Amino acid sequence: MTKKITIAIQRKGRLYDDSKDLLIKSGINFSTNGDKLLARSSNMDIDILLVRDDDIPSLVSKGVADLGIVGQNVLAEQAVSNKKISAKSVLSLGFSKCRLAFAKPMNSKLRSLKNKIIATSYPALVKKFLKAQDIKAEVIKINGSVELTPYIGIADCICDLVSSGATLEENNLIEFKNLMDSEAVLISPVSYRKINDKNILDLIKRFEGVINAAESKYVMLNAQTHSVEKICKLLPGADSPTIIPLQQQDKVAIHALCSEPVFWETMEQLKSNGASSILVMPVEKILN
């Protein structure tokens, strides 16, 4: 690459770990040092900005960063609350999946949000949701420990990020309404000619290759020639399997790239339909 590209990612936490993993698998070598906010790739003309996640949409909108990795929830909140934010999602990354949902105490009889007090770190999204549903309620912004607010009398319910639901359970809360699903996305400025730059497009292609490989599996097996058609239909998401003749005349080897997960049930179906020596291997990268 001949022109420097700057990518903004969260400086710590799960999103940082997943973002770093994506960059490294895409061939970008870099290391972080203490509290430094800038890391330079050792093998590509790329700078990595290590910042707070809620700063990323602004940095990308202003062109300080060419690309950014951030949760859809953060991008959506800032797009609603700040008219100066002009960043768009260009690729869903498939990690850091969660949902922004309403939750109430387990012993609460609350059935509706009408005239209730809602505590949240995402006031703009909650207000937008309430307006669209024509619901009158009070929204109070809380930056941390949102789960405590119903128990100290500040709110009737909360709207917060939910992943496994363990945090809600620990705080005796139960989810009752979903506002939006979220995952990490790659973002760029809305009106930015540089997104057509070949170097950036090639980099996005690399990201796509890593993402497509995440759930893909390479399957190899042997089968009788009369079972080939039936077995190929069972291979999940396989486009055009490779059929290789074996030394034994009535047997072939079938190799297939499966774009969907291959579960034990699938392997058992393959075996019951005549497949043998079934081998399922992970795929590290795919370049279409």
Helix content: 25-40%
Report the CATH architecture of the largest domain: 3-Layer(aba) Sandwich
Q: From the 3D structure, determine the CATH topology of the largest domain.
A: D-Maltodextrin-Binding Protein, domain 2
Strand order of the largest sheet: 2-3-1-4-11-5
Fold and architecture overview:
By secondary structure, the chain is of the alpha/beta class. It has 3 domains: 5-94 and 184-213, D-Maltodextrin-Binding Protein, domain 2 (3-Layer(aba) Sandwich); 98-182, Periplasmic binding protein-like II (D-Maltodextrin-Binding Protein, domain 2); 215-282, 2-Layer Sandwich (Alpha-Beta Plaits). 26% of the residues lie in helices and 32% in strands. The protein is built from 8 helices and 15 strands. The two termini are 20 Å apart. The mean pLDDT is 91.
Keywords:
15 strands, single chain, 8 helices, 26% helix, alpha/beta, five-stranded mixed sheet, D-Maltodextrin-Binding Protein, domain 2, 288 residues, 3 domains
Structure described in brief:
The protein is α/β, with parallel strands linked by helices and 288 residues long.
Topology readout:
Blueprint lengths: L4 E6 L3 H12 L12 E3 L5 E6 L4 H6 L5 E5 H10 L5 E6 L5 E8 L11 E4 L2 H10 L5 E4 L15 E6 L3 H5 L2 E10 L1 E6 L8 H17 L2 E8 L3 H7 L7 E4 L5 E8 L5 H9 L3 E7 L6
Parallel strand pairs: 1-3, 1-4, 7-8, 7-9
Antiparallel strand pairs: 2-3, 4-11, 5-11, 6-9, 6-10, 12-14, 12-15, 13-14
